[in-house]
Design brief:
Layout: E1 2-7, H1 12-16, E2 27-28, E3 31-32, H2 33-43, E4 48-53, H3 58-70, E5 75-79, H4 85-92, E6 101-105, E7 108-109, H5 112-123, E8 129-134, E9 144-147, E10 153-157, E11 166-174, H6 177-187, H7 193-202, E12 207-212, E13 216-217, H8 221-232
Parallel strand pairs: 1-4, 1-6, 4-5, 8-12
Antiparallel strand pairs: 2-3, 6-11, 7-13, 8-11, 9-10, 9-11
Helix pairs in contact: 6-7
Length: 237
């Protein structure tokens, strides 16, 4: 199974708040966010990891080139500035057409134990996609997820629905059939990952939701503090 990381944003909000490093290299408890994800993915049995960064990240590029040299599995690096996360996904998609894959952004923080169970669940699932969700809402613009009682995804919404308990966690396990829908979205001029997710439902793909206890995004300095505290809690499980 392959893993992919979208890391093409500028991290401008962190920079405005005094963080000097590019977001992928910002550390949580002494480990950069990009290195943490790579380690977790390798521990989950990744056969290949593909990563996109933008053209304005020379420090991240230099770091990842060193990581590539030392890695025991292939790490593909795409360097390109894109207008949205969905377009970044599109730039990675040529590496993801021949195997199940997991895609996330570099600033997604989750419990490693939960993630490993999630990946194992997808590996043994016949669903077209297993979408990470959480009922912990601390997102500036959450994407609400509607499911039935069996956790089949029936819709994605920008505003809260009476029957939408969860929001998207920004972690997507998908089969290669999803790449065909991504191509259609690009051809139609769509943007944003949430529109791609809506199209997966519209095209009849069987998507299941997998609840995590909590998933955090790191956009502000205060999020770094929350994320470190959250990760430190893992030792108490």
């Amino acid at each position: 199974m392959k893993f992919a990381i979208i890391s093409a944003g500028e991290g401008s909000r962190l920079q405005q708040e005094g963080v000097g490093l590019p977001k992928p290299l910002v550390e949580l408890n002494g480990v950069s966010m990009i290195d943490r994800l790579i380690k977790i993915f390798i521990d989950c049995g990744a056969t290949e990891i593909v990563i996109i960064i933008n053209n304005e990240q020379p420090l991240t590029k230099a770091h990842l080139i060193e990581v590539q040299k030392k890695s025991r599995i292939p790490i593909q690096l795409v360097i390109k500035s894109t207008p949205s996360s969905m377009h970044s996904f599109y730039e990675l998609s040529k590496f993801l057409c021949d195997d199940k894959f997991c895609l996330t952004t570099v600033d997604t923080v989750f419990k490693e134990r939960e993630f490993k169970i999630y990946i194992d669940k997808f590996m043994h699932s016949d669903a077209d996609g297993l979408m990470a969700v959480t009922d912990y809402i601390d997102d500036e613009k959450p994407l609400y997820v509607r499911t039935d009682e069996a956790l089949n995804v029936t819709g994605f919404f920008d505003s809260v629905q009476s029957d939408s308990r969860y929001i998207s966690g920004g972690i997507y396990c998908l089969k290669p059939v999803a790449i065909e829908i991504l191509q259609w979205c690009i051809d139609k001029g769509m943007s944003r990952m949430r529109n791609f997710q809506r199209q997966l439902v519209a095209d009849g793909l069987r998507l299941k939701a997998y609840p995590f206890s909590k998933i955090l995004d790191v956009d502000h300095v205060e999020d770094l503090i929350k994320a470190e505290a959250f990760l430190n809690e893992q030792g108490k499980e």
